[in-house]
Amino acid sequence: MSRHHRNRSWAPSPEPLPEGTEVVDDHTHMASVVPFAAEMDRQARDRGQDPVPVRDVDRQLEDARAVGVTGAIDVGCELPNLRRAVDLALEHPGVVHAALAIHPNEAVLHGHRGSPGPDGLPLDYRPWHDIPFEDALAEVDRLARSFPDQVVAIGETGMDLFRTGAASAGLQRQAFRDHIRLAKELGLPMQIHDRDAHAEVVETLLADGAPEFTVFHSYSGDEAMARVVAEQGWYLSLSGTVSYKGNEQIRRSLAIVGLDHIMVETDAPYLTPMPYRGRTNAPYMIPYTLRAMADALDIPIQEVARATRRTTERVYGI
Ligand SMILES: [Zn+2]
């Protein structure tokens, strides 16, 4: 299909989960869905396609509830967005909770104005990056302590070595270690962002000692890594990528880690599950991903759904 004809509209709602089956979207960015869909709308109008209506957070939660997705952990991982995630949780008590961290790609920017980016590319330096990393992390710490009922995890933290030079990798590893220490100090679960950094992330966790509940967000590892995860009692959170054709290694990892250690997420607005890859993702899309997980494990969808719900309760206390 040519780019010109690409469909930018919202994907249809999946079939609702069976009556009485409720799940939580364990990692999402609902506020970011709004500008993402606005961009889809702009592109659609440019090409003479139907407009793509805005769906605010209330609408996203309503659509999600209609298919059995009754809660979400909203992730704030840039300094100016931390408070927004907490506010969403305050506005939707018992439905939305927050995870907070300074994302690995953000961590390398804080306090490093003028330093060269990976591969000589200019860094996307913004005004808030003038604030040193230590102070940004202190804000994560402060909000987590001030809102213990809302903030249920530290994340997403970890390492992202996609196009990242050696200097940035060193900064990321230090920032990751600081987040590990903070999660353990606060007694909170940790959500890990690991992009092209499986060995480095595992090595750092083993060296420093992982928090009691350590979750690989949008898990992208292979079977060897899944065996380490199983051995250590860590958790996988699966996004729409589990449904992509080329990701057989993710599907095989599910069976290795086992039904008691897997959860489900959107990472909206990105990583939309099949058959709607490329559209705007939002929490209502979760059942498509559960369907892919169920098929990979060859068990009914409600069995996977209920297992993820139990695990979310055990890990996050929600
Ligand atoms: Zn994310």
TrEMBL record:
Q: Name one Pfam family in it.
A: TatD_DNase
InterPro entries in alphabetical order: Metal_Hydrolase (IPR032466), TatD-like (IPR001130)
GO MF, one annotated term:
hydrolase activity
Origin organism is: Bifidobacterium favimelis
Q: Which CDD domains match?
A: TatD_DNAse (cd01310)
Q: Could you confirm whether the keyword Hydrolase appears in this record? A: yes
Q: What phylogenetic lineage does the species belong to? A: Bacteria, Bacillati, Actinomycetota, Actinomycetes, Bifidobacteriales
Q: Which UniProt keywords apply?
A: Hydrolase
Q: What is this protein called?
A: TatD family hydrolase
Q: Where is this region: Disordered?
A: 1-22
